[in-house]
Write a structure and sequence with these properties.
This is Response regulator. Keywords: Phosphoprotein. One of its GO terms (biological process) is phosphorelay signal transduction system. The chain has about 120 residues and is of the alpha/beta class. The chain is about 45% helix and about 20% strand. It has one domain: Response regulator (Rossmann fold, 3-Layer(aba) Sandwich), CATH 3.40.50. The protein is globular, with a radius of gyration of 13 Å. The model has no long low-confidence stretch (mean pLDDT about 95).
Length: about 120
C-alpha cells in the first residue's frame, strides 16, 4: 500500500482529501502544521508528501526546504497545495524543491488522478 503524508491546517479540506485518497487505497498520515509534518517525515517513509503553502509553525516552503537537506529524504516526492496560484508562487515552490504544484480550489478527482500518476511511476 502506498503511503502519503498530508500536511494541511484546514481540517475540513484535510478530511476531504483524506477521504478521497483513502477511497483509492492509500494509507494517509495527517499533520495540521509544518512542524508536525517535519516530525512525520523524519520518522517515516512516504511515497508522497502533500503540503499546504501557508501553515502554522513552518510554511510548506520551509518544510520542503528542510526535507531537501535531509540526507535520506532528498528524493522524496513532494506536492505543494496552495491558494497562492500566481506563477511566482509556483516558481518559489519549485525552487524550494517541490516536484508538483496544485492550486486551490481543485477538484478532489483531479487530485486523486495526479496522486495516482505520481506514486505509481
Amino acid at each position: 500500500m502506498k503511503r502519503i503524508l498530508l500536511a494541511e491546517d484546514e481540517e475540513v479540506l484535510r478530511m476531504l482529501i483524506v477521504d478521497t485518497l483513502e477511497d483509492d487505497g492509500y494509507e494517509i498520515d495527517e499533520a495540521s502544521d509544518g512542524l508536525e509534518a517535519l516530525e512525520f517525515i523524519e520518522e517515516n517513509d512516504y511515497d508522497l508528501v502533500i503540503v499546504d503553502y501557508m501553515m502554522p509553525g513552518l510554511t510548506g516552503l520551509e518544510v520542503i526546504e528542510k526535507v531537501r537537506t535531509m540526507p535520506n529524504k532528498t528524493e522524496l516526492k513532494m506536492m505543494m497545495l496552495t491558494a497562492k496560484s500566481q506563477q511566482k508562487d509556483e516558481e518559489a515552490a519549485k525552487r524550494a524543491g517541490a516536484n508538483y504544484f496544485l492550486a486551490k480550489p481543485f477538484s478532489p478527482i483531479k487530485l486523486a488522478e495526479l496522486v495516482g500518476e505520481i506514486v505509481n511511476v
